[in-house]
UniProtKB/TrEMBL annotation:
Residue segments, region Disordered: 1-26
Membrane topology: Multi-pass membrane protein
GO cellular component: plasma membrane
TM ranges: 35-57, 63-86, 98-118, 197-221, 233-256, 262-281, 301-325, 345-365, 377-397
Stated family: Belongs to the XK family.
Name of the protein this chain belongs to: XK-related protein
Annotated compartments: Membrane
Pfam families cross-referenced by the UniProt entry: XK-related
Compositional bias segments (type: Basic and acidic residues): 7-21
Organism from which the protein derives: Oryzias melastigma (Marine medaka)
Main localization category: membrane
UniProtKB keywords: Membrane, Transmembrane, Transmembrane helix
Length: 477
């Protein structure tokens, strides 16, 4: 399910073969930057939430305290389960690690393990090497090359895969509702606590990072035979795109909830159940059963439970931003490999209309709190920010996507097709107008001849025209 190449070969390699493999085919051990960053965000959000919970407890805000506690503990528990599931620690004798997971400190010990592995990478000799065939794109040309991956690099890759999935869970099942809750509480109470502001900033950074990981995972799964290399400009476009999209979406929902509190529950439930049932409806239309290769040892019930949790995460992501992938429960990888521009256009068009409706309803039903705020300017700014998010998304797919040359259709092609269709319509319209011109000219000449019957120079012309018409008629017959 993680996009492991099918051409991998495992086996023992002798010392001479290992020495020969060192060079361009030897993979470099990269530092686990993503693991460290995910752990820092996890700890920072947990600590800031704990401080804010203590402040709520002292001030007597019981409702805000319990909601804040739930949005911290629930994703933390799912994070521990995901780490133990990816590393397969349930059947292994590791009591200390399992104890730390029970104390919600699993990411810290996993991060330490990854750092220790990276420090020992240059000192340890790998007797077990994986030979993987990977494709590289260099100036649009496909180049195939064998890469020898050692055991340390494989273990580090397992850590990276585990933390990428926990980052997505933490971002969209914890940080996103946490940011929405704290922003709503700040508007309702009409002041911002220092602890609340710190938690909101950390949550926003966690959400943007989780959306970035979603994009990179989607690229890796779709092009699992290729080595993914993203330029700094691509990261910049994705950060601006995701930051503006998520901030605008959260702000629109919070503003709408301050004006029509009970109706926002209906909006959230409709969004959630639509994206939750969409993969299952597609599966039902195909008239097949789920065949996702989640785990070989799972029963049908266990597979359905895992797939249901997977679709819940998919629905939560799509409520706030584009998930960058579409689920296909009938496929072994659970992900559609083809890039569907129609679904992307439909999502952003529908989301823009929904945000416009939410902001418009807020504008007409807003409370007295916004008397000192220029409401029309705020509404226009939100719509402009979402439009800028769409613009940076288009820039990413058009210029910064690492596999843009492999797209069958791109934004530039779509624009060219639309321009060609418009030009063809114009040409057809002009050619149609020109096709009627000879008839009008001939008709005008006939009227002139009828008006001048007595001129001898016109009589010869009148005699030739019927003859030519009769000859053409006979030839046609």
């Amino acid at each position: 399910m993680c996009g492991v190449p099918a051409e991998e070969q495992h086996g023992e390699i002798s010392d001479s073969d290992r020495d020969a493999s060192v060079g361009e085919n030897q993979s470099k051990v990269h530092p686990p930057v993503s693991v460290v960053l995910a752990t820092l965000l996890y700890c920072a959000e947990f600590v800031s939430a704990a401080v804010l919970i203590s402040m709520y407890h002292k001030s007597g805000d019981v409702i805000w305290m319990w909601f804040t506690l739930f949005f911290v503990v629930f994703p933390a528990v799912l994070t521990q389960l995901t780490l133990t599931f990816v590393h397969r620690d349930v059947g292994r004798d590791r009591p200390l690690v399992l104890l730390l997971h029970l104390l919600l400190l699993g990411p810290i010990i996993r991060c330490l393990e990854a750092l220790i592995l990276y420090c020992k990478a240059g000192k340890m000799e790998d007797s077990y090497v994986t030979i993987t065939k990977r494709n590289f794109l260099k100036k649009g040309q496909r180049m195939e090359r064998e890469i020898h991956i050692g055991q340390v690099e494989r273990n580090l890759a397992t850590h990276r895969d585990a933390f990428e999935r926990t980052t997505v869970i933490q971002a969209f099942l914890g940080s996103t509702p946490q940011l929405t809750l704290q922003l709503y509480a700040a508007i309702q109470e009409r002041y911002v606590l220092d602890g609340r502001l710190a938690l909101m900033i950390i949550s926003l950074i966690s959400i943007i990072y989780g959306a970035l990981v979603c994009n990179v995972l989607a690229i890796k799964i779709r092009y699992d035979d290729y080595k993914v290399r993203l330029r700094p400009v691509a990261y910049f476009c994705m950060i601006v795109w995701r930051g503006l999209e998520i901030a605008t979406r959260v702000t629109a929902l919070v503003l709408f909830s301050t004006a029509l509190t009970h109706w926002v529950i209906l909006v959230g439930l409709l969004n959630f159940f639509f994206f939750l049932l969409l993969p299952w409806v597609r599966l039902w239309c195909k008239k097949t059963s789920p065949t996702g290769d989640v785990e070989k040892n799972f029963s049908k019930l266990g597979t359905c439970i895992v797939l249901s949790l997977f679709t819940v995460l998919f629905a939560c992501i799509n409520i706030f931003c584009w998930s960058a992938v579409q689920l296909d429960l009938a496929d072994n990888d659970l992900i559609e490999k083809k890039h569907n521009w129609l679904q992307l256009a439909m999502y952003y068009s529908g989301r823009f209309v929904e945000n416009l409706l939410l902001i418009t309803l807020w504008y007409f039903f807003k409370s007295d709190f916004y008397e000192y705020v220029c409401a029309p300017l705020l509404a226009v700014q939100l719509l402009i920010c979402y439009s800028l998010a769409v613009l940076f998304m288009l820039l990413f797919y058009e210029f910064c996507h690492p596999f843009r040359s492999l797209f069958q259709h791109n934004i530039h092609n779509c624009l060219q097709c639309s321009c060609r269709q418009k030009s063809r319509r114009r040409q057809e319209a002009t050619s149609h107008s020109y096709s009627t011109a000879p008839t009008l000219v001939r008709g005008s000449r006939e009227h002139v001849e009828l008006l001048m019957p007595l001129h001898p120079e016109n009589s010869a012309l009148r005699g030739d025209r019927p003859m030519a018409f009769d000859e053409n008629t006979m030839e046609a017959a």
